[in-house]
Automatic annotation (TrEMBL):
It comes from Paraflavisolibacter caeni. The chain crosses the membrane at residues 40-61. Keywords: Membrane, Transmembrane, Transmembrane helix. This is Peptidase M23.
Length: 131
C-alpha cells in the first residue's frame, strides 16, 4: 500500500486543473475554469456554511420554529398544562356523573333493592318556656 507523504498531499491540493465546458454540437468552449483541489474544497465549505446559516436564520427568525417539537414559549407550555389539568378534571367529573346517573336508573328500574331504615328515631321533646 502506498503511503501518502504530507508534502505530496499539500502539493496535490495546490495543483491546478482546468474545467472546460464545451458546446456538444460545435465543440466550442463555452466556459473555462482554472481550479485547484484547495479552491474547490473552500468553495464547497463556504456553500455548506452559508446553507446551514440560512437554514438556521430561517428557523430562528420566522414562525417555523413553533413547528419544532419542544421549541415553544413558556407561556404556551404553561397554558397547555393548565388545559390538560382542566380536561382531566372534567373527564373525572363526567365519569362520576355517568356512574351516578346509572345508579339512579338502576334504582328507579328496580334492579337494586334498597334497604330501608325502619328503626324509630326518638326525637327529644323541647319544652317551650313562656316568659
Amino acid at each position: 500500500m502506498v503511503k501518502l507523504d504530507a508534502g505530496t498531499t499539500f502539493k496535490r491540493l495546490r495543483n491546478r486543473y482546468r474545467l472546460v465546458i464545451m458546446n456538444d454540437d460545435t465543440y466550442e468552449e463555452v466556459v473555462t475554469f482554472r481550479l485547484s483541489r484547495r479552491s474547490v474544497y473552500i468553495a464547497m465549505s463556504t456553500v455548506i456554511v452559508l446553507f446551514v446559516g440560512l437554514t438556521a436564520a430561517l428557523i430562528v427568525l420566522t414562525p417555523l420554529k413553533y413547528y419544532i417539537p419542544g421549541y415553544g414559549s413558556a407561556k404556551i407550555s404553561r397554558e397547555y398544562r393548565q388545559l390538560k389539568y382542566l380536561t382531566d378534571s372534567l373527564e373525572k367529573q363526567v365519569t362520576y356523573q355517568t356512574q351516578y346517573i346509572e345508579s339512579i336508573k338502576s334504582v328507579i328500574s328496580g334492579e337494586i333493592e334498597l334497604k330501608r331504615d325502619t328503626t324509630q328515631l326518638k326525637v327529644p321533646v323541647v319544652e317551650e318556656s313562656n316568659e
